[in-house]
Amino acid sequence: MTPPRLRFAPSPTGYLHVGGARTALFNWLYARRHGGQFLLRVEDTDKARSTDASTRAIFEGLEWLGLRWDEEVVYQGASAARHRADAERMVANDHAYRCFCTAADLDFRRKLAEANEGAFKYDRRCDELDRADVARRVAAGEPNVIRFRVPEGSTGWTDLVHGEISFPNKDIEDFVVLRSDGTPIYNMAVTSDDIAMRITLVMRGDDHISNTPKQIMIYRALGEALPQFAHLPMIHGNDGKKLSKRHGATAVADWQHEGILPQAMVNFLSLLGWSPGGEFDEVMSIDELIAKFDASGLRKTASVFDTKKLEWMNGQHLVRMPLGELSPLVRRKLASAGLATEADLAARPEWFNALLELLRVRARTVDDIVRQARPFLSDTVGYDETAAARAWKDTADARALLAAAREVLAACALWEHAALETDLKSLAEARGLGVGKLFGPMRVALTGEANSPGMFDVLILLGRDVALFRLDAAIRELDRRTG
Question: Per-residue pLDDT for the chain (483 aa), expressed as one digit of tens each?
Fold first, then answer.
């Protein structure tokens, strides 16, 4: 069998939406799974809205996700001559005809139909013109469009997602394929491009289902073999409505900047409208997705973009990610946050990797790791007032506990887990307390927060000098609060 050729064809009129990214991903996965090619076509014929910035944003989004295309990018606007030639070829073989009706004529007839409570449909009056008259009017430069002559019967196909789909041709008017200025209508340009690019499977959103019968007619009029079609259901927000900005971040770049890993986004998007079937682990690598992806797993129903599910999945990928890949990513984020320089962190890799191991199991995003790392990289800590109010409720008792802990830690012979655990548990027992009653005030003193990694891990990462310094600072703060 010929290797499949698929394409992603965005319009460069905005950012790469997660819906577009999902479409690109499914095309890419199918091509990789079946040893085919994944192509990229920029549909830039809307010159008023297309921008270079949007084109770059689309490229950058695809590259961040790892969806590399296999051939040179095709720009639809550069193929205008072919679009016109294909439209003219359909006129020559009697599948299309020239229409000289003006916009005013059509508007008048449309309003007349509405006044009579009828639906307007072009009446083919220009299809009845004498060929010699048509040639004379064209030679005279009279403006005209090219309309496709819709045949009788019906037009259908077997969709890889929805199965058999068919449209009665009587419901489709003779549609324009070429405007009077020589520019193609969407369905003409898309079909001409897909033929030229030898596309064998057109996989796109199901909002294009109504375009498909027109495109199939053009394929047949040009004498070309039909590709397969697969129409993917929309992605909805939690309210069941089409995903939009009101649901939060919808651009791939937004999630990138919020600490989502590309492999987690790919994993998440892959499960919006597809399932490998049976029981499976939702957390999958790119290689696993390629190995499992098959059109039989495409779903007919809309999917829900669940932000919490995305963040959960990202947390799973954070835990599984090799430290050698995660470390430079977090270093850059910490440097951007002004908490450390990349050089300083790279100079003590064992300490930094130990910190990452502790923090990533508690994080959903890379930004979570940065937030949690702040107490370990700052000279001082700010006290979360809710945490302080709870842990230091009785300021005199809290001060006494911190002072006792400071004395024990200062005298600790070895600054390692077992010795710290022995000495602090002995202190708690001597005071008739559970270790939680001791560690609560200490945690706020050392990190400023109510939650952190385990106490002994915190102490080891901070080191003796910093830990004692922060306990002294907390004791002074409690003295101040006591007044």
Answer: 799 999 999 999 888 999 999 999 999 999 999 999 999 999 998 888 889 999 999 999 999 999 999 999 999 999 999 999 999 999 999 999 999 999 999 999 988 888 887 788 899 999 999 999 999 999 999 999 999 999 999 999 999 999 999 999 999 999 999 999 999 999 999 999 999 999 999 999 999 999 999 999 999 999 999 999 999 999 998 888 888 777 766 889 999 998 999 999 999 999 999 999 888 999 999 999 999 999 999 999 999 999 999 999 999 999 999 999 999 999 999 999 999 999 999 999 999 999 999 999 999 999 999 999 999 999 889 999 999 999 999 999 999 999 999 999 999 999 999 999 999 999 999 999 999 999 999 999 999 999 999 999 999 999 999 999 999 999 999 999 887
CB 300 within 8 A of CB 330: no
Q: pTM to 2 decimals?
A: 0.91
Q: Which two tokens stand for residue 457?
A: 């891990």
Helix (H) or strand (E) holding 53: helix 52-65
Which residues are catalytically annotated?
245
- Position 182, amino acid: G
CB atoms within 10 A of CB 210: 10
373-379: long-range pairs with CB below 8 Å, 24+: 373/330, 373/334, 373/339, 374/337, 374/339, 375/446, 375/447, 375/448, 375/449, 375/452, 376/461, 376/462, 377/334, 377/339, 377/340, 378/339
Q: What length does the chain have?
A: 483
Cα 352 vs. chain centroid, distance in angstroms? Answer: 30
CA distance 175 to 148: 5
435-438: Cβ within 8 A, 24+ apart: 437/401, 438/401, 438/405
Tokens read off for 383: 């006290």
Best CA proximity match to 224, nearest among 263, 186, 198, 259: 198
Residue 54 identity (one-letter amino acid): S
**Parallel, antiparallel, or unpaired: how do β-strands 145-148 and 37-42 relate?**
unpaired
Q: How far apart are the first and last CA of the chain?
A: 84
By DSSP bridging, strand 235-236 and strand 303-304 are parallel
